Amino acid sequence: MVNRQTCTHCGECVIDCPARIISLGEDGYPTIASEKEGTCYRCQHCLAICPTGSVSILGQHASGSRPLKGAFPDPDALETLIRGRRSVRRFKPENLDPVLFQKLLDVAWQAPTGVNSRQVRFTVLDSHEKVVHLRDEVMAGLLRLVNNNALPERMGYFANFVSIWEKHRVDIIFRDAPHLLIASAPQHLASPMQDCMIALASFDLFAQANGVGTLWNGLAKWAMNDILPETRRRLGIPDDHLFGYAMVFGKPAVHYARTVEHGPALVYRAMEGSVSDVPVD
Ligand SMILES: Cc1cc2nc3c(=O)[nH]c(=O)nc-3n(C[C@H](O)[C@H](O)[C@H](O)COP(=O)(O)O)c2cc1C
Predict the structure, then answer these.
(1) What is the pLDDT of residue 278?
(2) Any atom of ligand 1 within 6 Å of the Cβ of 87
(3) Domains of the chain, with CATH numbers?
(4) What pLDDT digit, counting tens, does each position of 201-212 carry?
(5) Beta strands in the chain (DSSP E)
(6) Nearest CA to 30 among 6, 55, 48?
(7) End-to-end Cα separation, the chain, in angstroms
(8) Which of 101, 198, 199, 238 yields a CA-CA distance of 20 to 30 A from 215?
(9) CA-CA distance, 12 to 115, in Å (whole number)?
(10) Does the Cβ of 218 fall within 6 Å of ligand 1?
(11) Alpha-carbon torsion angle 18, 20, 26, 27, nearest 10
């Protein structure tokens, strides 16, 4: 839909459309031929780029969008967030406010996906009680494998975590966090792993910007997906989904006073010098 009162015929929507399905009609207004609608990426670039907010698509209108002029975060603040986010391994037991919980997921889900497939699924445990329940099941499953000498060899170190749990009730896997997030996506997509990781990376930063602690959790992933795959079924992760990764999160019971410094980046400048210097076999 194009608002004919405000469209200036600038053609920006035509140029920016990645599927190249928008054209200016004979009347000078942008249009999509009905036979081309099926190849729309559903990216909404036409709505995003229109300087006068005249384009509506897929039921979305400019009035429902945020204006961007001058609204991006200050680069210094964003740098401090990237440098200052830490893996949190100590959590308060209380659950997050449900409104914030939902907002973190909704914002993270805005992350880009290959060919805009937007099929990343967030499987969540929204209360400490549920994570405790899952943790108890996973620890019991691992203990069974330890007792039967049936842990996969390359994951033998999980026996230590079970032992620490049994002796001291210290949870090295889920870190006694109140919430768990798993990103999964259908295997057949163009880039399911990348889609999941970008969504989780977005979640990570946005959560920490909101004072919520996060921990990327390879141990939980291996326990739930690789060692005890019945757990992923129990959590309702579809069989045809790639288990992207797991993250635990909640109010931190730890406060970091400063950033750590890891730089400079490991950079290799390829194609330095003249291209003819590159040896060719
Ligand atoms: C993909 C990935 C998996 C991780 N898995 C775990 C994990 O299972 N348990 C854990 O305690 N930390 C885990 N971490 C946290 C890393 O150990 C941590 O990022 C690293 O030590 C640097 O600390 P920082 O995140 O505070 O900068 C993981 C991090 C990443 C990126």
Answers:
(1) 60
(2) yes
(3) 12-64 (3.30.70), 80-250 (3.40.109.10)
(4) 999 999 999 999
(5) 22-24, 30-32, 121-125, 179-186, 213-216, 241-250
(6) 55
(7) 57
(8) 238
(9) 21
(10) yes
(11) -20
